[in-house]
Design brief:
Radius of gyration: 16 Å
Number of strands: 0
Helix content: over 70%
Shape: elongated
Number of helices: 3
Distance between the termini: 8 Å
Largest sheet: none
Length: 71
């Protein structure tokens, strides 16, 4: 059980690092590639999905960490 939690924690942490690195500080996906000319600060489309996925994987990482301490 402990090895399964360790593997799950490693996989979730790698995905979480990728999601965080995708989000450039102050730059949206459209603004960073030069495709968008708007100065809107709202999250839309893929940017919104990545933002929400970051919170979900953060929760999963914390849950796996706590479960590993308990087991």
């Amino acid at each position: 059980m402990k090895s399964i939690l360790s593997v799950a924690q490693i996989v979730v942490s790698v995905i979480l690092m990728i999601l965080i690195l995708i989000q450039a500080r102050g730059m949206g996906f459209g603004r960073s590639s030069g495709l968008g000319g708007s100065t809107s600060f709202s999250r839309r489309g893929l940017e919104k999905l990545v933002f929400r996925a970051t919170f979900i994987f953060t929760f999963l990482f914390l849950a796996a960490s706590i479960l590993q301490l308990i087991v």
